[in-house]
Amino acid sequence: MESNPELIEAESAQNRLYIKRGHVVNHDGMQQADVYIEDGTVRYVGSGADFVVPGGCRTIDATGKLVIPGGIDPHTHFQLEFGGTVSVDDFYKGTKAAVAGGTTTILDFVLPKKGESLLEAYDAWRVRADPKVVCDYGLHVGITWWSKSVRDEMKILCQERGVNSFKCFMAYKGLYQLNDSELYEVFETCKELGAVAMVHAENGDIIAKNVTKLLADGVTGPEGHELSRTEEVEAEAVNRACVIAHQAQCPLYVVHVMSKSAGIEVARARRRYNATGIFGETLAAAVGTDGTHYHDQCWHHAAAHVLSPPLRPDPTTPEFLMKLLAQDDLQTTGSDNCTFNRNQKELGLKDFSKIPNGVNGVEDRMSVVWEKGVQTGLIDPQRFVAITSTNSAKIFNLYPRKGRIAPGSDADLVVWDPKAVRTISASTHHQACDFNIFEGMKCHGVPEFVIVRGRVCVENDLIRVAEGQGTFLETPVYPSFVYDAINGVKHEETSDEKHARNGLQNLDFHQKSSGHDLDIPDPYALPDKYIPGPALSVISGDSQISTPHSARGHRPDGTKNMQESTFSISEELDKSENRSCIRVRAPPGGKSSGFW
């Protein structure tokens, strides 16, 4: 049978892709370079003068653009049964929306019902996802109850099913919540297996009491959701989870840090334990909007913003959390995408505790983080890559296959236009939900091309994907990024990696702001004192942000230079006219004893 030359050429063009004249950005460096892709893998990154482009190869001209690793969303809930309904973004619509926004890998959560086999729940999630995903995906598994059989199944999941992370809940009393003793045993098991423990940190016992009191007092609207689980309820649980994990000698990943006080507790723990074993995630929602929406006069608008932990009414929270990301007190940004439509949210029309929890974000995460981080001058493109892709790949042991542009890496790339502008709207997004919490936000930074395993899936707003084209990713145990430090294996940080944090490791933590402060004397010491006060502020001079053709290009008007600035972390927790002061003393030398 004779071969068809035209067909062969077409197949070659699909399997081979050449991106020229782009500015390649990894977390630890930027370079003007061309990228050659073949059969879904990056084969070459370097000067075009040193590479001969094969025949039958499609070429994309990325002049004036950034070429970045595809985003990794470490926190999604597609097709999730919750609160008597199912989230409307299934694994097809959800991953399609992710790709539209520049995310090429997602990590979803298997959440067994109380008493359900972890293995059976895992199998059910694979049945839902495998035929539908349009990008690669992995799975965390929730530990929603505890017994010897659960412990045994955790081992099987790690050894045979490609799972290396388990999420515990300190909230949702009567549904998912574990007590402290159970948390300790789960953390011990994770450490024994070389897995990463994850935690939803809120004090579920306090929340349950508050919900009862608020409803009894006639507070039934969406504003009751945040009132029942205020910042300190989140912060207390974050601190407790970090202490339990430290006692169990287990690495801990705190999901969806939503408040300034909770972010401070993650920062404190990382400094107590010498930046080892504690990792923090915040959400696009947390850096992109705030909890003032819970008091909107339109019930449906307010309810559409309900998630747990909730958005915070302090409008300075988003900038505060972005600065924690900038200085590496938080490491990743997820979406916690769990979308419900108007009629589903109405399940809680007369009782806020019955409003299905969840918001959108999987499609807009990359643009929102760019707008709130890079466009404002708080971070540079390298740190953007770190907090939207690389750090998740490292923590969950997918790096450097994912989260990097280098020979041998999967060809998950985005040609990112830093000058393009788009306005977010539910009328134009690709998600199945009828509301967008970022409605009307103008974002600089738009994915022009999105490449998934070498296939051009997004081209100038045109999306070409097929159900099932993605594959399941096994996440091996003992990720070196997590366990090497715990086990005393040290790696020298390169100068590029230090620069990738945008110079914020040199900030003066003694700088006072507006009369209220949280002093952190150095990046690895305990806070000396904690006085509730207003938001973290920045005192700075002029600045420039990175552009495709120079490490430091033109800065948008009004942005601040974090390279030359100092700031102090402080936090607004006014509960009355009086302010309390909690004093914490660090051991000699500012570092803690213990295994970390």
Q: Which class of secondary structure composition applies to the elements?
A: alpha/beta
By CATH, the superfamily comes out as Metal-dependent hydrolases
Residue-averaged pLDDT: 85
- The number of helical runs is 17
The CATH architecture designation is: Alpha-Beta Barrel
- Helical content stands at 25-40%
What is the CATH T-level topology? Answer: TIM Barrel
The largest sheet is: 9 strands, mixed
Question: How would you describe this structure to a colleague?
Answer:
The chain has 17 helices and 24 strands. By secondary structure, the protein is α/β, with parallel strands linked by helices. The chain has a single domain (68-495), classed as Alpha-Beta Barrel (TIM Barrel), CATH 3.20.20. Strands 1, 2, 3, 4, 5, 16, 17, 18 and 19 form a nine-stranded mixed β-sheet that branches. The protein has an eight-stranded parallel β-sheet with strand order 6-9-10-11-12-13-14-15. It has a three-stranded antiparallel β-sheet with strand order 20-21-24, with no helix packed on it. Helix 4 links the parallel strand 10 and strand 11 (165-169). Helix 5 crosses helix 8 and helix 8 runs parallel beside helix 9. The model is unreliable at 1-13 and 502-596 (pLDDT under 50). One of its GO terms (molecular function) is metal ion binding. It catalyses: 5,6-dihydrouracil + H2O = 3-(carbamoylamino)propanoate + H(+). InterPro entries: Amidohydro-rel (IPR006680), Hydantoinase/dihydroPyrase (IPR011778), Metal-dep_hydrolase_composite (IPR011059), Metal_Hydrolase (IPR032466), Metallo-dep_Hydrolases_sf (IPR050378). Belongs to the metallo-dependent hydrolases superfamily. Hydantoinase/dihydropyrimidinase family. The modification N6-carboxylysine is found at residue 167.
